[in-house]
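User: If only I could read backbone structure tokens as easily as an amino acid sequence. Underneath my words sits a plain record pairing an amino acid chain with its backbone structure tokens. This is the protein in question:
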Amino acid sequence: MSTTPPFWADAALFLDVDGTLLEFAPRPEAVVVPPGLRRLLLDLAAALDGALALVSGRSLDSIDALFDLPQLAAAGLHGLQRRLPGRAVEVAVEPTVSSALERLRAALRTLTDAHPGVRIEDKHHALAVHYRAAPTAGAAVEARLREWLAALDRSGELGLLHGNHVVEIKPAAVNKGTAVEHFMRAPPFAGRRPVFVGDDVTDEDGIRAAQALGGVGVKVGDAPSAARCRLPDPAAVRAWLGAYREFLYSGPARRTPPQANRR
């Protein structure tokens, strides 16, 4: 596996957020956006004619609250929510899936009583069970979720998605890979080479989709991955993106960085 991701002038960048652009925090709302990162993302998006998307398990509202960049393309809830630049948000959820999620909400409330430290995050179109504050509860939480899914979602439309100290319940047919495929069919992404950067097992679908479409996946950290490239941590991702900006603005493309609202 190569340790150095490529610099392509015709890339379409897909960037996970937690664990990739940002270091993890004890709670999702406690993460910190480093100074200069917003400007870096804007400059890269401008140089790539808008072909940069944030792809996260967070909702789009949470992504926008963090970065205050609603003009960027983004996919929230592992691809359930999708927004192309300048377009309205699309939600890829069938009514029957919403009904199954509603049946699970009441059952999930009992988990926090049985396992102190476990926290339920209701994302409306998905449900996340965080156990970072109760790491020994992970196996019991997953067993109970599988039991409930078997009883309350007999159509099999929902699935479990494992992340870093979190298990999510979401529509099984949608993931970060389907989000990449969706974006790559539309301007400004169509015709470019996708580069997906992610740290977690939830990013592997995006990594595989990017590579199947002629691009490359970049794994953050040392966990096993299908990715052909690797970076060690979020600080290295930000440094690589900074070098990418220099390549785009001082290399063959010779783009002029936008000056307005620099921060």
About this structure: The CA atoms of residues 143 and 214 lie 38 Å apart. The longest helix spans residues 95-114. The helical segments are 37-47, 60-67, 95-114, 138-152, 176-184, 204-212, 234-250.
